[in-house]
Amino acid sequence: MILDGKAVSNKILEKLKDKIEKFSIKPHLVVILVGDDPASKIYVKNKKAAAEKVGIRSSILELNSSISEEELLGKIKDLNRDPDVTGILVQLPLPSHIDKNKVVETISPKKDVDGFTPENVGRLVIGLEPYFYPATPQGIIMLLDEYGIQLEGADALVIGRSNIVGKPMAQMLLRRNATVTQAHSYTKSLEDKIKTADIVVSAVGKKIVRCKMVNKNSVIIDVGIFRDANGKLTGDVDFDLISPEVKYITPVPGGVGPMTIASLMYNASKVYH
Ligand code: NAP
């Protein structure tokens, strides 16, 4: 069965729109874009369009790639103090002279819609409620919940350990009482681990989950998105071979991608004072 991220995302966004319509003060998301990386420009434009669709005010703060780190941190501090701004998102990557960690640390945890600040990550790990959960793992949990997939007691394998997907995904599954294995490029016998897991979340960026590795009860979540040798958008999972063999699977595109947008908009609708 295909886990239809597009349909679930649309449903969430519709509900969110109805909810935001009733807000007396509309949330205001500021997206900071440093430099003119074409891919980043598209991502930022898409985020703004998604926000506007659900009634979230959004602004793009475009900054020259020559901006100093200090100046950028100053702009973020101004936005932290601005009561009219409820969410701040810094589009990555940043120019090499700017320390990404310093930038993330500077964002107020109560406006950190990406859920990347040390306070939000720390709260996630120690079992406190973060102000925001990172969008992609949160979107995946929303999708699994929508289809009633049991997480409690499930053997979950997360392939990848990035700060934006792999690590928070593992923590969120752990919070839901799954038994989590975190795999990465040094992991031995990955095939066996994939075969015995109830839930596999693959966040690598190359073809990693192939036929014969899965079992008929597997739930396969494909986070990866990249272009193959023919320029076609694809994921980490060999979808054509694997989809008939497993219980649930997400397609690429149309799976985790739209859920990330819905989840980000859910975050951007939150207002803390
Ligand atoms: P990343 O930072 O590049 O991390 C990739 C991870 O994969 C690393 O932890 C790496 O291990 C691991 N890895 C590499 N080769 C491996 C192998 N042979 N076996 C097991 N693990 C291996 O990537 P990311 O930012 O998490 O993104 C991963 C993919 O998801 C990319 O395709 C990205 O475009 C996509 N993505 C999609 C969405 C969405 O909304 N659909 C959102 C975010 C990301 P090491 O740590 O040992 O190097």
Task: Provide a concise account of the structure shown.
By secondary structure, the protein is of the alpha/beta class. Helices cover 40% and strands 15% of the residues.
Characteristics:
273 residues; three-stranded parallel β-sheet; 15% strand; globular; five-stranded parallel β-sheet; Rossmann fold
Please name the fourth-level CATH homologous superfamily of the largest domain.
NAD(P)-binding Rossmann-like Domain
Sheet with most strands? 5 strands, parallel
Instruction: Report the total helices.
Output: 10
Here the CATH topology of the largest domain equals: Rossmann fold
**Overall number of domains:** 2
Integer average pLDDT: 97
CATH architecture designation of the largest domain: 3-Layer(aba) Sandwich
The CA-CA distance between the termini, in Å, is 42 Å
Instruction: State the name of the first-level CATH class of the largest domain.
Output: Alpha Beta
Low-pLDDT runs: none
Number-wise, the strands total 10
Strand order of the largest sheet: 5-4-6-7-10
